[in-house]
Amino acid sequence: MQQKNEKMLLEIVKTLQKLRQEKPLIDCITNRVTINDCANILLAAGGSPIMAEDEREIDEIISISQGLVLNLGILDQKIVSTMLMAGKKAKQTGIPVIFDPVGAGASRLRDDLAQMILNEVRPDVIRGNFSEIRALSGAAIQSRGVDAAAEDAVNEENMQVCGKMVQELATKYQCTVCATGAIDLVSDGEQIFYIKNGDPMLCDVTGTGCMCSALTGATCAAGGALNGAVAAVVLLGLAGEYAAEACRKNGDGIGTFRVKMMDAIYLIREKDIMERGEVYGGELL
Amino acid sequence: MQQKNEKMLLEIVKTLQKLRQEKPLIDCITNRVTINDCANILLAAGGSPIMAEDEREIDEIISISQGLVLNLGILDQKIVSTMLMAGKKAKQTGIPVIFDPVGAGASRLRDDLAQMILNEVRPDVIRGNFSEIRALSGAAIQSRGVDAAAEDAVNEENMQVCGKMVQELATKYQCTVCATGAIDLVSDGEQIFYIKNGDPMLCDVTGTGCMCSALTGATCAAGGALNGAVAAVVLLGLAGEYAAEACRKNGDGIGTFRVKMMDAIYLIREKDIMERGEVYGGELL
Amino acid sequence: MQQKNEKMLLEIVKTLQKLRQEKPLIDCITNRVTINDCANILLAAGGSPIMAEDEREIDEIISISQGLVLNLGILDQKIVSTMLMAGKKAKQTGIPVIFDPVGAGASRLRDDLAQMILNEVRPDVIRGNFSEIRALSGAAIQSRGVDAAAEDAVNEENMQVCGKMVQELATKYQCTVCATGAIDLVSDGEQIFYIKNGDPMLCDVTGTGCMCSALTGATCAAGGALNGAVAAVVLLGLAGEYAAEACRKNGDGIGTFRVKMMDAIYLIREKDIMERGEVYGGELL
Predict the structure, then answer these.
(1) Of the residues A3, A145, C13, C97, which has the maximum number of CB atoms within 10 A of its CB?
(2) Signal peptide: which range, if any (chains A, B, C) (predicted)?
(3) How close is the nearest chain A Cα to the Cα of C74, in Å?
(4) Tell me, what DSSP letter sits at residue A139?
């Protein structure tokens, strides 16, 4: 486990190259809090965002898109039916569907709607914080709104146990599951990866989870579900590290952190990934 | 009046400490223009934002929240009934309700809806610019959209007269009223405080009023209505001063100001409050 | 064509002066992705934004506004009927109406709704990227979501041909048409201007088109449709140039670019426009 997975780092490099060349169009049906950040991170990474969510045009928009991101952040009576329609169309078309179950565990409504999307759409990737992933797994949780609960922090000690829960959820829904946190866990049910990039300041900005899901849409369009899910958390983790280093150097705070994080996604080079990417695991289970 | 109120400055320090320790979860039902800024300022100050507004989950979300912020910024047919439901539940639960009557005075609709919320919810804090507070007081006004009218600027000369209007509104609705401007006025009907922190650049960024209201949700959750309302305007005022100083030093504009303002909220120390907080008044009326 | 149009540059200077003095109130009915950026650029330029869109207050809000911006960015069942109501009221009142047909060409729905607004409101200015303008012209296009298609890039070679399409659309709808891109084209059907300010980084931030349309609301309120449309693209183009220069100097990316762009709109001086404004054309057709 102490050996970096160089093979996966190379896959991430290839995924980023392809993303920047092909500029996939990603439709995001996403919440109003972080919608601008989601569009901007897609552009910064090399993708092309569209935030189309009117049922009257969903078919046409999905047919010109290369990926779809569904984010449960702000609910209303209609948005979930639109997500179901878009998700089913995307699955027919064969483009990757990323699902972010924002706030699963915080209310019965969110749990129910998340299950509906899982069952009816069958997303290719589920991306949430560990509290949300735990809630989808049906484990008893103590939710703390839309942020992960302190007791759900993944660390060196509980990493294997948490990884097992991620892997089981992936097996259950035959998809890739990505649980983000201090250590990110990604599994397609067969392999499991542990990603140790990132910085605690990422938790002090709203929407880094949503941004990760949006970015996953683009990386999966370029590199497939498993590589794409790992690539997105490595890219965002590295961006967080560079931004935090810049802030600490100059005594800046969270406003500057956000700006520098977006700078880093835009500027990241292949050698940054190879030298600083902290991807472990990957062996067959 | 020329003597700083050191006792209140100490209360602000204590409020900020408690906020950072307890990380209160604040539900904001707020407008789409500044929703991201509201979430980010809550996080920067040490709170935890949730922007839940679906009536089907309001009860559950309020029951795990420590504060509720209602912001009248963008209207639609449904949002006010949701605010009424959330507000009533919050009052039952005993968590502080902050009401921001954005654009009161700009249209009959906004005046009517604001009165409905005041009467049916009985918020703990009303936070608006002085034009909005004047409109709620029923005084004839010349509104200028969502920004305060020039003739509503509070200065050393009219400060006492304006303060009286704020105090009367507080008495009428048995709550704390906070009118922000060049001089901020906060009264619970018994005491009145005059806060002279801030910088004119705060008016050149959209949503500083909304951000102040969101922040007030967290400071009131930590320090109660009166101390919390004063704390929020002092924190935002100081952040504006630091940001403006940074911009003037480097010849930067309003984009940099926003970033530095968020930095300052995140980095502010207790000694900044004690040394630079400009809180006056507070005597019993 | 190689001679700068100094007369128009002087008009832009006058327009900016008037905008900063009169601080026109601009109502924007605009999409959720970039609504905060639109409000902030209006404030940065000297205007006053209001994002009112509830039909119950539209009449009152339009009657206190000096301009109206309609942006087709995110659709729902109701927004277009509100736009029609607001647009007709604005035309009665005599304030300029700016229409941004976001994503025209990307779906049949958007094409139909755009035509409805053109025919029923008769906007004073249509502002879109060249793919969108081409779609409104009824030319066959290969759309690429909400961003301009590569084959729709305007350059020195096709500038005259593209300009003709812009001029014909302006004649057809008796309005000013502004097609933005590497070279911006503005025509009122009689004159045509070519604006060469800007930087490719403007395409790597979401919402620069929306921001341009919002800004056009304020510049048209101050300077009339034709001068206002040219002024907005020159201001945004110069802001892009200054921001890109700052980023290249310090090795910064797109996060910093956005901040510096907003700084530049706020700080721009009359001599910047006269010295660096790249406005060509303007002769009677």
Answers:
(1) C97
(2) none
(3) 6
(4) -
